[in-house]
Amino acid sequence: MALIKVKDLLKHAEENGYGVPAINVFDYNSIKFAVMAAEEAHMPLIIQYYPGFKEHAPLRDIRDMAVAMAQRASVPIAVHLDHSKDFDIAVEGLGAGFPSVMVDGSALPYEENVALTQDVCRCAHAMGVDVEAELGHVGVGMQLEDMTNTDFFTDPDQAVEFVKRTSVDSLAIAVGNAHGNYIRTPELDFDRIAKLREVLDIPLVMHGGSDIPTDQLIRAVRCGMSKFNIATEYQRAFYTSMEAFFEDKSHPGAYYRALRAIERPCIDFVKEKIQILNPDHYSLA
Ligand SMILES: [Zn+2]
């Protein structure tokens, strides 16, 4: 029974100076490889699902597989629903049994973000479910302005008020990070991260954790960030390893062989992220 609450896991990570990758999964294999990587690394991990993919795989199916694999895992694994864009999706996640949900009202005016986050927290907390919210707006990495315009960045004073009013459990912050592929190498605002860490008493979350250079990831951990969302790079690990298998042409039509062939590179990708985010080499083993 190694299923752990996101809140408890991030607290442990903070106390022991490591960051936790939150790996965005999309099917059975992506969950399995991520859990295997955590077991091999003897470190905890978060499995999360983006509800925008629910037309492909229903929330309940991914939740059930992730929870079952977490319960059997030899290391603590948390399960989380990523980016609920409105109240209905967050409640759908609660109904599907996710032990943790994100509600993202960051594109809304501030007061509407507060109200939405308050509503989701009220429902989720009554069910013992953790909530992550976002303040400031983490945009898209292909738009330079989203990475550089500090108007989108999280304001520390506003963050203090937001956390107090919503009683949210963790906060996604905008500090030069962005979703998807980056148009140029991101430059994180470490002074802002340090300030947010100083004034807030809940874990801080980095969205757009893919393709952030290793030295910046380590520095973000040292500044006290706890959860690092990895989606784009994990999908790329699947794509490139499968592409290599298909180009090889030695087993035409053998899809099962392709799945076996991509297992090791995908596990190794997640293991490397776990290790990068753990600069002091903390180990459960
Ligand atoms: Zn995100």
Describe the structure.
The protein is α/β, with parallel strands linked by helices. It has one domain: Aldolase class I (TIM Barrel, Alpha-Beta Barrel), CATH 3.20.20.70. The protein is built from 11 helices and 8 strands. Strands 1-2-3-4-5-6-7-8 form an 8-stranded parallel beta barrel, surrounded by 9 helices. α2 links the parallel β1 (20-25) and β2 (45-49). α10 packs antiparallel against α11 (255-276). The structure holds zinc ion.
The order of strands across the largest sheet is 1-2-3-4-5-6-7-8
CATH fold type: TIM Barrel
The percent of residues in helical segments reads 40-55%
Question: What number of domains?
Answer: 1
**Largest beta sheet, briefly?**
8 strands, parallel, barrel
CATH homologous superfamily title: Aldolase class I
List the helices and strands in order.
HEHEHEHEHEHHEHEHEHH
CATH class: Alpha Beta
CATH architecture: Alpha-Beta Barrel
Strand proportion:
5-15%
Structural class: alpha/beta
**Global morphology:** globular
Radius of gyration: 18 Å
Poorly predicted parts: none
Q: Using DSSP, what is the number of strands?
A: 8
Bound molecules: zinc ion
Mean pLDDT: 97
